[in-house]
């Protein structure tokens, strides 16, 4: 399955049998078969016919509209998963403080370990950065070792933040100096690397939301990220451990000069990737997107199994993966024995 990216002003998309047809200025300019599509991403002034929207929905093909210069995502979805009992169980467990803490420990540890694995791999092949990466890895190791000791989600967030600071210090040293990356910033991103990361994280988040809907889970009700109006909190939970995939991709694009500082412009709205750069970005993104969908399918299956194993409902789902922590009892200090299980 693949994605279609449409970033061209004034194009109209229509359905013609089992194909998606492009029209511009009243003329037919291209055709794409519907069969291999799993996602359609739209940016710019693009028009879709209602017949095409119906066909995309029937086939479960998600449509993601990236609006404005900041590419704010809006999603159009097909029919959701039929198993509403799974969502009821999810809602119940979101109110279970013990379950949420165990889940959150697994999320934070998986994220920290993914960051550490990435920096360790780079350290072995980057003599120039070896010293700084070693320091970052020591700090990450300290954070990982402390995950099981955390008695609240608030303290886990502090641990995650400390790990992120260590990680991005090491990550910055891997990037070309001309990019002047000094750490993570957003809303708006103020440099090319952060603009690249923000765009990648946005697309990853959209893929996560679609995967959760497809599995019958509610993206808005999370266990680590609390309820917040308009925020897909469960999607935010699952994105955490996969951010490093986007980071590696960004590093590759800048080091290979498939993206350069000249591809970005800075305005009052922040640092933005221009149209020519976006075309190269989308061409490179699809290979990563296929890997992300596979990883997300595994993560979403783990979540569904964790909900079932917690005993809230006998939800039909995939064969159980490594989610033994879901039923681990807490001791009086709030500690479970499954904090070292990064089953996500």
Automatic annotation (TrEMBL):
One of its GO terms (molecular function) is endonuclease activity. It comes from Candidatus Accumulibacter aalborgensis. It holds the Pfam family Cas_Cas1. Its cofactor is Mg(2+); Mn(2+). HAMAP family: Cas1 (MF_01470). Belongs to the CRISPR-associated endonuclease Cas1 family. Homodimer, forms a heterotetramer with a Cas2 homodimer. This is CRISPR-associated endonuclease Cas1. NCBIfam families: cas1. Its EC number is 3.1.-.-. Residues 320-344 are annotated as: Disordered. InterPro entries: Cas1 (IPR050646), CRISPR-assoc_Cas1 (IPR002729), CRISPR-assoc_Cas1_C (IPR042206), CRISPR-assoc_Cas1_N (IPR042211). GO terms for biological process: defense response to virus; maintenance of CRISPR repeat elements. The lineage of its organism: Bacteria, Pseudomonadati, Pseudomonadota, Betaproteobacteria, Candidatus Accumulibacter. Mn(2+) binds at residues 160, 225, 240. It is an enzyme of class 3 (hydrolase). Keywords: Antiviral defense, DNA-binding, Endonuclease, Hydrolase, Magnesium, Manganese, Metal-binding, Nuclease. CRISPR (clustered regularly interspaced short palindromic repeat), is an adaptive immune system that provides protection against mobile genetic elements (viruses, transposable elements and conjugative plasmids). CRISPR clusters contain spacers, sequences complementary to antecedent mobile elements, and target invading nucleic acids. CRISPR clusters are transcribed and processed into CRISPR RNA (crRNA). Acts as a dsDNA endonuclease. Involved in the integration of spacer DNA into the CRISPR cassette.
């Amino acid at each position: 399955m693949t994605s279609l990216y449409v970033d061209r002003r004034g194009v109209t998309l229509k359905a013609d049998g089992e194909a998606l047809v492009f029209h511009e200025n009243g003329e037919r300019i291209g055709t794409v078969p519907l069969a291999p599509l799993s996602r359609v991403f739209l940016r710019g002034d693009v028009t879709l016919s209602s017949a095409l929207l119906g066909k995309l929905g029937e086939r479960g093909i998600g449509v993601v509209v990236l609006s404005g210069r900041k590419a704010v995502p809006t999603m159009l979805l097909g029919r959701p998963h039929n198993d509403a009992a799974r969502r009821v169980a999810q809602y119940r467990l979101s109110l279970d403080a013990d379950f949420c803490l165990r889940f959150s420990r697994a999320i934070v540890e998986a994220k920290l370990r993914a960051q550490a694995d990435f920096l360790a791999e780079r350290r072995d092949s980057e003599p120039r950065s070896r010293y700084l990466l070693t320091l970052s890895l020591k700090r990450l190791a300290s954070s990982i070792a402390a995950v099981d000791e955390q008695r609240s989600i608030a303290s886990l967030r502090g641990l995650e933040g400390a790990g992120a600071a260590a990680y991005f210090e090491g990550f910055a040293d891997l990037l070309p100096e001309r990019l002047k990356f000094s750490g993570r910033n957003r809303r708006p991103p103020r440099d090319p690397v952060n603009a690249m990361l923000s765009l990648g994280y946005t697309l990853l988040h959209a893929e996560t939301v679609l995967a959760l809907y497809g599995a019958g889970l509610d993206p808005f009700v999370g266990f680590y990220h609390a309820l917040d109006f308009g925020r897909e909190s469960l999607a935010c939970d699952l994105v955490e451990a996969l951010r490093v995939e986007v980071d590696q991709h960004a590093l590759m694009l800048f080091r290979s000069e498939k993206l350069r500082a000249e591809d970005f412009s800075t305005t009052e709205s922040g640092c933005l990737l221009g149209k020519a750069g976006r075309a190269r970005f989308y061409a490179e993104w699809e290979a990563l997107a296929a890997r992300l969908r596979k990883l997300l399918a595994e993560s979403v299956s783990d979540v569904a199994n964790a909900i079932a194993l917690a005993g809230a409902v006998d939800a039909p789902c995939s064969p159980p993966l490594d989610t033994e922590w879901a039923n681990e009892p807490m001791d009086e200090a709030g500690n479970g024995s499954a904090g070292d299980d990064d089953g996500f």
